[in-house]
Specification:
About 40% of the residues lie in helices and about 15% in strands. It is built from 11 helices and 10 strands. It has an 8-stranded parallel β-sheet. Strands 8-9 form a two-stranded antiparallel sheet. The longest helix is centred in the C-terminal third of the chain and has 21 residues.
């Protein structure tokens, strides 16, 4: 199976339909969407979120508690409210909380999510510190997937949206295997070595297609397809060799379609 994550606000009718069509191929993790809501200025209603996870229209493997960005106290309150309703969400330990809260969460959940890792300073040091506290317990590092850290700590779970950003920033990630990636800017794509060109071809993408400007634009671009291929392969390798659940962030039904395409392409190749 391939690991996918989606935030609650993006669970549209079309998304749910395509997700259900591919149910047997997907391990699905639901995020509350607090980060999305924070950026959009539209808070998530706790009661509505609870109702959704109580009677979901899709098969959910696990789901997160509704966190509140920048408010550890409210985040903890939401978690215990969900527990009181008979739900079993993954609690989120937010950066800046008392470390004792981490142990408190582990008393009621076998997995704890750790947030505050995206776009923050000194997040490497924070991860080193938090993993000393986590020890051998199950943890989900939210949005933190640096290969050297994933390989060393082998967190139970983590997630990445990196494959979605190629058209937006004009930079793609080429996966070389064994956890190794390189980033290349659009303007430098014609300078790739023969080895890297061949690697792209081996991944199922025509390297020459990347030399065209139009293939770097839009959600269905070749550049994003290549990024998707690399992330799917890396996710499958993480599961097989590291026993890490590496989730690919999605937001549209087309995202699911792209991921499943590459899952079908690679699943037999790494058996």
């Amino acid at each position: 199976m391939i690991n996918m994550l989606c935030a609650y606000p993006y669970m549209t009718k079309s998304y749910i339909e395509v997700l259900n069509q591919n149910e047997k191929k997907i391990k699905f993790l639901l995020d509350s969407g607090a980060f999305t809501a924070f950026n959009n200025g539209e808070p998530i209603n706790l009661e509505e979120y609870c109702a959704f996870v109580k009677n979901p229209p899709v098969k959910i493997w696990k789901y997160f508690a509704l966190d509140v960005i920048g408010n550890p106290k409210a985040t903890k309150k939401n978690y215990y409210t969900m527990l009181d309703k008979g739900l079993n969400p993954i609690p989120i330990f937010t950066r800046g909380e008392n470390p004792k809260t981490l142990n408190e969460y582990y008393k009621t959940s076998d997995i704890v999510g750790v947030g505050g890792l995206v776009g923050t300073k000194a997040n490497n040091a924070f991860v080193n510190g938090i993993m000393k506290l986590v020890k051998k317990r199950k943890v989900h590092l939210l949005g933190f997937t640096k290969p050297e850290y994933v390989k060393y700590y082998k967190p139970y779970m983590c997630d990445s949206s990196a494959w979605l950003t190629a058209p937006r920033y004009g930079t793609i990630t080429i996966y070389l295997g064994n956890g190794n990636r390189i980033k290349i800017e659009k303007k430098k794509i014609n300078t790739l070595s023969k080895y890297k060109q061949d690697r792209i071809q081996e991944m199922g993408i025509n390297y020459k297609d990347l030399l065209s400007e139009r293939n770097w634009r839009g959600g269905k671009s070749v550049s994003r397809d290549l990024s998707c291929a690399g992330e799917v392969l890396y996710s499958l390798e993480c599961a097989k060799y590291l026993k890490v659940n590496y989730f690919l962030v999605t937001g549209t039904s087309w995202d699911i379609t792209q991921i499943i395409k590459w899952y079908d392409y690679y699943k037999e190749k790494i058996q």
